[in-house]
Amino acid sequence: MLVIGYWLAIYEGISLPEHFFFKRGINGYNVADYTSPHLLPPGIAAILAFCFGVFGAVMGMAQVWFTGSIGKHIGNPLYGGDIGFPLAFAFAFVSYVGLRTVEKRKFGR
User: Fold this and answer.
1) Which bin fits 95, alpha (ψ -120 to 50), beta or left (φ > 0)?
2) CB-CB contact of 83 with 56 (8 Å)
3) What is the 3-state secondary structure (H, E, C) of the chain?
4) How many CB atoms lie within 10 A of CB 46?
5) To the nearest whole number, what is the mean pLDDT of the chain?
6) Angle at 65 between CA 62 and CA 71, to 5 degrees
7) By CB neighbour count within 10 A (0-12 exposed, 13-18 middle, 19+ buried), where does 76 fall?
8) pTM of the prediction?
9) Which tens digits make up the pLDDT trace of 9-36?
């Protein structure tokens, strides 16, 4: 069940910068654009940021069945410490901001 929680960190790491940096709040959303796919972003940045977020979660997780390489060095020496949630958020957030900037420059949407 804890593994499902990592998804929330990745989701927040992608949706929060989109809302606050790229849409600049609630007024940045144009509902009419959602019926025209050619007006929407292609989503390449979000897919890649999701993959980076999964990578961060795996590197920082400390579960009974697996402990990531960063998670081994945190907390209890035998079991490690679970920092997969904050790492998933940080990896997704940083990569999304960079990739979305490039995507916006290239596609203009």
Assistant:
1) alpha
2) no
3) CHHHHHHHHHHHHHHHHHHHHHCCCHHHCCHHHHHCHHHCCCCHHHHHHHHHHHHHHHHHCECCCCECCCHHHCCECCCECCCHHHHHHHHHHHHHHHHHHHHHHHHCC
4) 19
5) 94
6) 20
7) exposed
8) 0.92
9) 999 999 999 999 999 999 999 999 999 9
CA–CA dist 51, 48 (Å, integer): 5
- Say how far apart CA 59 and CA 68 lie, in whole Å: 4
Question: Residue 12: what are its φ and ψ, rounded to 5°?
Answer: -65, -35
Q: Mean pLDDT throughout 38-63?
A: 96
* pLDDT of res. 86: 96
Instruction: Give the pLDDT band of residue 76 (cuts 50, 70, 90).
Output: confident
- Partners of 76 in beta bridges: 80
pLDDT at residue number 1 = 61
